[in-house]
Write a structure and sequence with these properties.
about 350 residues, alpha/beta, Glucose Oxidase, domain 1, Rossmann fold, 2 domains, ten-stranded mixed sheet, 10 helices, 19 strands, about 25% helix, about 35% strand, globular
Length: about 350
């Protein structure tokens, strides 16, 4: 079906939809990963967003359900230059079009994704919509005004408490704000018994279980939309070792008295360099976030920085067992450079 991708700044791009066919509004971002489109599609941190792939051909190795990072997709729409209808891979189970239909996600192809990316880089992340027909400016403005991403954390968190690898030797209380399954896999691989809690869990419930480690996951949106989780983290810090990734890193920063701010167009992709300030080593990392930690308190020190723009990529408390990183060491889809961070996290309790 012929459709338009219309950005908040008025730019219009014409293409054809695939997957689900419906009008949609979301926050548009771009991701620079050359592979890993399935992990991108199923990463809960993209909830509420329209994701533009900068690599021109998407879908060439198909979809393999074993590689899902969540049970279903959470993003609003998927923008590509060209989709592959006939993927070639021995693990392939279905093509991109069929997968998006099954998931109820809108796709649009034939878009000049390089031009879209340049607009986002110049003007910043903005609202956008994908619509059929030719709506006028007033209709587009009305549609864009309906976007509300303040609830995406609660949309993606678990709705019940459950435990994985119950007999593991290290008890981890895992606060899920839209977690990627890769994080859980890496903890279980290290013989952790992981009890997963929803984002709005009160601190008292976790305290009763006396975990060895409290772990805060990644998740979508603005950390300031999760004040309850910040208060939970604040109550647990000093009583238990606390670690976090991505949104969890931002929540920990707020709990320690730091501030957060929104980047112009965020970090999205599997090729972002970060520098370890303890060793001077540079690692290539997978990232997906629009917000960063800033304005550290005297008790907090920076541990990693982004090589491209100098922004914060990791913090730790100077005296308490609290540390977090902004990037994704679980490497789904990759790279594998920083998987050792899970071992560092667990050293706090061993």
């Amino acid at each position: 079906m012929d459709a338009q991708l219309i950005l908040e700044n008025g730019a219009r791009f014409f293409g054809k939809t695939f997957g689900a066919e419906k009008d949609i509004v979301g926050e548009i971002v771009f991701t620079t990963g050359m592979t890993g489109y399935q992990e991108t599609l199923t990463d809960p941190s993209y909830a509420g967003q329209i994701v533009t792939m900068t690599f021109p051909l998407i879908g060439n190795y198909g979809i393999n359900l074993e590689d899902m990072e969540a049970k279903h997709t959470n993003l609003k729409a998927f923008v590509v230059r060209e989709k592959c209808d006939y993927p070639s891979n021995f693990r392939n189970e279905m093509n991109l079009d069929d997968f998006l239909k099954e998931q109820g996600v809108v796709g649009i192809e034939g878009i000049d994704t390089r031009a879209v990316t340049k607009i986002i880089r110049e003007y910043g992340t903005m609202r956008a919509c994908i619509v059929s027909g030719d709506p006028d400016e007033a209709e587009v403005k009305a549609l864009l005004s309906t976007l509300d991403n303040s609830h995406v954390i609660m949309d993606t968190t678990t709705d019940q408490v459950y435990t994985l690898n119950r007999d593991g030797k290290t008890k981890v209380a895992f606060i899920d704000m839209g977690a990627k399954d890769g994080i859980l896999r890496d903890l279980i691989k290290r013989d952790c018994a992981v009890t997963v809690y929803p984002a709005n869990i009160p601190a008292a419930i976790i305290e009763e279980t006396k975990p060895d480690l409290v772990f805060l996951s990644n998740g979508p949106g603005d950390p300031l939309d999760a004040p309850g989780t910040v208060n939970t983290a604040k109550a647990l810090i000093g009583k238990f070792p606390v670690c976090g990734i991505c949104m969890g890193h931002q929540i920990i920063g707020l709990a320690l008295g730091c501030k957060t701010k929104k980047l112009k167009f965020g970090h999205h992709g599997a090729n972002h360099p970060v520098k370890d300030l303890m060793t001077g080593n540079v690692y290539i990392t997978s990232q997906n976030h629009n917000y960063i930690v800033s304005d550290y308190t005297d008790d907090v020190e920076e541990t990693f920085i982004n090589v491209n723009d100098g922004t914060c990529e990791g913090i730790r408390h100077k005296t308490l067992p609290v540390q977090s990183v902004q990037f994704h060491p679980e490497a789904a889809p990759g790279p594998l450079d920083t998987g050792w961070l899970f071992d560092r996290f667990l050293k706090e309790v061993l």
